Amino acid sequence: MHQTTTDSQTAHTAQLPQVTEPRNPGQPLDMDWIRRVQANTSAIERRCATLPGRRSIKKDHQAAWLLKAVSLIDLTTLSGDDTERRVQRLCAKARQPVRPEMLEALGMPGLTTGAVCVYHEMIPAAVTALRGSGIPVAAVSTGFPAGLSPFPLRLQEIRDSVAAGASEIDIVISRRHVLEGNWQAIYDEMAQMRAACGDAHVKAILATGELGTLRNVARASLVCMMAGADFIKTSTGKESVNATLPVSLVMIRAIRDFYDQTGHRVGYKPAGGISKAKDALVYLSLIKEELGDRWLMPDLFRFGASSLLGDIERQLEHHLTGAYSAGYRHAIG
Fold first, then answer.
1. Is 278 considered catalytic here?
2. Rounded to 5 degrees, what are φ and ψ at 296?
3. Is 58 a catalytic residue?
4. Which of 5, 66, 118, 266 is 20 to 30 A (C-alpha) from 202?
């Protein structure tokens, strides 16, 4: 991301009314296209190795991009000990992610996060806490995180979450189908999940750390988009390996190829392991360079994170005051 007026204006679009991309209608499974998909691992890794040090974003430009990142966060709690009170605190943070006086000083009053993501049981609490804010509730579904519950139960879980008020559903695919090269099974599964979501947008979690190769990641991305996924997402956040730059580059280029072939834009969500403001800037740079400014909006890009917000707030405070506050001041919970 170059330090230019155009980039600064792009970053500040977080404060403007957001557009909503038409949904991806999907298409028939095209096995010839899938077989043509390859991934040059060494070239991908070389490209990604240049990203963290190649761009330097400073001062006002950095603050603008960090505010943009805040608007793209799916603020998330997915713990076995979640309570309604914890979800209410999370939703309050989504409504007011950065202290009001800081947002006023930065010229961004009213900034919110992209969504709040919870388990099914916590949807009613989140819907109530976010009422009137315009912030969507996302629910993880389909036997998250393993995706191994009986398929009819996974479909019913989606329907129940939509009925409870979730407007976005993060589903998990069956990794074994990818590892076995059973692309028809992945397509059929994804298409039925998309149908079960109704009007709710569906994010397909690939669990990329468990797919074996970057070629599998590329092909699974394409199949899910063919089946109508509105977003493709790296990880559940529960795997040993979550979002990485090589995986992101592969998925982003699959999105670009799908758009070039069909004219339909699909969103991207890296999740798991993105906890530092500097990492968020690298991902935003990658999106801008590979897909362009249109993908730097909440309807086409999200971070699956919670601790990321705390570090961004600390960096913004340093930008305004020249000092860092203690990390605990920005903790959520």
1. no
2. -95, 40
3. no
4. 66
